[in-house]
Structures are given as structure tokens and as C-alpha cells.
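Annotated sample (chain length 211).
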Amino acid sequence: MIGPRRQPILVADSIALDFLNSIATPADVPVEWLGSGEDLLEWLNRANLVPSEVTSALRRSSLPGELDAAAAQARALREWFRDFVREHKGRHLRPIALEQLGPLNRVLERDEQYSEIVKAPRGAGTQGRRPLSLQVQRRWRSADTLLIPIARAMADLVCYEDFTQIKACEGATCTLLFLDRTHGRARRWCSMAACGNRAKQAAHRIRRRKN
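Output written by the structure step:
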């Protein structure tokens, strides 16, 4: 049984792992954050992957069922990448892993990025700053282009992060993944406020029973 949708959990210190956590069991009941096209738009906004004006425009322009189809593609991409991460987490990624990354590269091939000169944002620099800046933009031609920033986040994890730092929360029922950047790689929980606190309470009850 899938539980009711809550606010997305963004605690992984990696947006790609946060995306894997878009279906998870943070307590006792699995929660799906990408059950529909509208769910996908909301998650992308919350994760700051797609500007709100883009999701609003796609909401207006998409054909019936198009956003739901994009959400289905996102779920399929998520589960494929979950298998990849589970296979390689906890050890250094080797070049041979490239053979498994065809599905990710096929999504990345859809990208239509371009550079544009725009007015520099206010407060962007000190006195004498240049009034214009160069920004990278993207053409959002259809609902399935919503997968591109997700794929870019996955590519960043694969190419720039250390897979030995990827861990699973030690909570008894928790399924969340995270990137452990702490000193000494000491992180054990998705968050201290959730599973960390539950573990402390459980340990306290055990000590009380022993006494």
C-alpha cells in the first residue's frame, strides 16, 4: 500500500539521490511522490530543478495525459538508476560502469541548452560590476524534457561524486539513501530529527528495561 503524498524529503545532499528517495518508506508506509504528472511538477519545483514559470507553462500547454506519461518515464528512470546505485554504492565507480549508462545518456541526448546574455541580477557584485551576464538556458519543448535536469543530476553524481560516500539510512524500516560528506564518514541516518531520534529513543527504552 502506498501512503498519502507528503512534502518531498530532500536530505540526501545529492539531488540525484533525493530523486531516488521520491519513493521511500521513511517510517512504516511507502510514499510515492511521482504518482502523476502534477506530482512530478511539484517535486521538480520543490527540488529547484525546473523554474516555476516553466512548469506552469507546461501545465497549460501539455496535451491530456502527456504529463502523466512523463511521470511514468521519470519513475522508470528512477528505478533503473536505483539498481545502478545499489550495485555500485560503497565502492569506487570503475570505468566499466559506462557500459550500463546507456539509458541515462539517451535522456541526456534530448537536451537543448543554449547561452543567452541577460541583465545581471541586482546585488550580483560590488561597485563596478558588469551590467550583463551570460546564462545557460534550456528549451522546454514538451513534457518529457522535464527528465533532462533529473538526468543531469544523475550524471553529476556519476561523474563528480565518490560512490564510496553513498549510504543507506540505518533506520529499521527507512529506505532513504544519502551522500555522506561528514568528517570520518560518520553519518548513519537520513536525518537526526527522524531516524536518528527514533534510534536514540529505542536505545533509551532498552537501557531502561535493563535497569
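Annotation: The domain at 15-210 is CATH 1.10.3300.10 (Jann2411-like fold).
Annotation: The chain has one domain: 15-210.
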